[in-house]
Write a structure and sequence with these properties.
Layout lengths: L1 H28 L2 E7 L18 H9 L1 E7 L2 E2 L5 H10 L24 H7 L3 E7 L4 H7 L2 E6 L11 E5 L10 E2 L4 H16 L7 E6 L11 H4 L38 H30 L7 E7 L18 H4 L3 E4 L7 E8 L3 H8 L14 H4 L10 E5 L3 E5 L3 E6 L4 E6 L17 H17 L9 H7 L16
Parallel strand pairs: 1-8, 1-9, 2-11, 3-12, 4-5, 4-8
Antiparallel strand pairs: 2-10, 5-6, 6-7, 9-10, 12-13, 13-14, 14-15
Helix pairs in contact: 6-8
């Protein structure tokens, strides 16, 4: 009898041991996620995007090792600082006007408490790490991340050599005192990411989600001199859509971004400006290369999903504009590369996704239940080769000034305050130079695009009545003031 009891106990211990091995194994099989986000990088500011004028060898190598989505969109902005709504959408997986983060007058504890991307992974057993630009809220930061080094919460302008940073204290419930970067932000952020990967190899019990958000290539246009010397102004060609000045006030026309250079634009100044932008991207690329090299030499190399993208694009001289407060492709599209096990290598597909799809996609790949509050669609069907496009129509908005709908063939932009209309045939005119809205040949197409916009505005709960834009936007709790320098909270 005693012998039987001993056998039963031994069998029980053996089962527990095997279960513990099984649990540890399944944890280790969960894919790690390395998310790299840049600030203000246009979709074509990459060598791998067929831009022969910029040097990005590390990101080009990543593109060769992964899948590029050529058409990835930011839905728009309720703020002159387009980065803030973009990050709110990325981290909630919700649509532009439904993140709950747009009205700064509402106290944090009275805003909707949607599950966040990092928080969801954290609750599923992942260790979550953050470095770089956050720009959502302190509460959201501490809910999302276990570990944080060199975190920039947001501010008016950047001095990349003297940016305000903080760390998340051990335990993840508070933050340190702020401190100066004392070196270029791209280098400091890469240092933090490399340091985390190196330390993580000593404690591999939990998979990780790394959120690495560079401040570059956002102005100020600062990078080490040898990068600037790579792009002398006289060697930089002007873009095909360069104009000295935009033909209409599209709203917030005199915004800070647009005042970085004189208006009308001067060709020599514009070339130097583009060169400085490319220099920042190349410097950024070098720092991304450091992170990727550390990952590649680690034990995590074969089990990490890498996503590289930006919060939105930037005009950098196209259409006479410098900033991102517009609906042209150079400003609403972002570069996008995803690499990892079982993901196609060296291939490019259209994609037609929004940035907020990153949350549900990575959750699905990690076997984590996607919260019911997430509105964006997972793009796993693209990764499985079942389709190459997720959306037939793309919606965009900028405050109460602009509304846009885009298909693969046409783009319609409407400016409700000034009642201006643009229609572009993207097949014949990818640079969006010729407005065909008044061409009788396209009257039916224009009508269809207007109908598509109306449908999408309802779908995305857009508060604006196009016939009464200012009051309906204001009534919904949004700021309708024109941009002026005192609105420092926005940038």
């Amino acid at each position: 009898m005693m012998f039987n009891k001993i056998l039963v106990k031994l069998a029980g211990y053996l089962i527990l041991f095997l279960l513990s091995i099984s649990t540890a194994y399944s944890k280790n099989e969960k894919p790690n996620v390395l998310f790299i986000l840049t600030d203000d990088q246009s979709f074509d500011a990459l060598g791998s995007a067929n831009n022969p004028h910029i040097k990005t060898p590390n990101l080009d190598k990543l593109a060769a090792q992964g899948l590029t989505l050529s058409h990835v969109y930011n839905q728009g902005s309720w703020s002159p600082a387009v980065c803030a709504p973009s990050r709110a959408m990325i981290n909630t997986g919700r649509n532009l006007f439904e993140t709950g983060m747009q009205n700064k007058e509402v106290p944090m504890d009275a805003r909707p408490d949607y599950p966040l991307w990092g928080e969801t992974f954290r609750n599923a057993g992942y260790e979550t790490f953050m470095t770089g630009k956050w720009h959502v809220s302190r509460d959201a930061l501490l809910r999302s991340f276990d570990v944080g080094q060199a975190v920039h919460e947001g501010g008016m302008t950047y001095d990349h050599y003297n940016a305000v940073m903080l760390d998340i204290n051990e335990g993840g419930n508070s933050v340190s005192k702020t401190y100066s970067s004392k070196k270029h932000t791209s280098e400091l952020i890469a240092d933090a990411a490399v340091n985390y990967l190196q330390k993580k190899q000593d404690s591999q019990d939990n998979p990780f989600l790394m959120y690495v958000a560079f401040l570059a290539p956002h102005d100020e246009r600062q990078s080490p001199s040898h990068f600037v010397e790579m792009y002398p102004g006289e060697s930089i060609p002007l873009p095909a859509s360069f104009k000295q000045q935009h033909h209409l006030d599209q709203g917030d026309f005199w915004i800070r971004d647009e005042k970085l250079l004189s208006i009308p634009r001067k060709e020599d100044e514009m070339k130097t400006f583009i060169g400085e932008y490319y220099a920042m991207v190349s410097h950024l690329d070098e720092q991304v290369g450091r992170i990727l090299a550390t990952l590649e030499s680690s034990t995590f190399a074969d089990n990490t999903i890498i996503i590289f993208t930006s919060d939105h694009g930037l005009a950098v001289g196209r259409h006479g504009l410098l900033g991102k407060q517009n609906q042209y492709d150079h400003s609403i599209r972002a570069p996008f590369i995803i690499a990892g096990k079982n993901i196609d290598k060296g291939k490019t597909i259209k994609g037609n996704i929004y940035l907020n799809s990153i949350f549900p996609t990575t959750a699905e790949l990690a076997g984590i239940k996607v919260p019911s509050t997430v509105q964006a669609k997972s793009f796993v069907p693209l990764l499985e080769g079942k389709q190459d496009s997720m959306n037939d129509t793309i919606y965009g908005a900028y405050r109460h000034f602009q509304r846009m709908v885009r298909t693969d063939d046409f783009k319609y932009i409407y400016y409700p305050l000034i009642k201006e209309t643009q229609l572009f045939n993207l097949k014949n005119d990818p640079e969006e130079l010729t407005n065909i809205a008044t061409d009788a040949k396209y009257a039916e197409q224009l009508k269809r695009m207007k109908q598509k916009l109306t449908t999408l505005m309802k779908q995305y709960k857009d508060p604006v009545d196009l016939n009464n834009p200012m009051s309906t936007y204001s009534d919904a709790g949004f700021n309708t003031d024109a941009w002026s320098l005192q609105y420092t909270e926005y940038h």
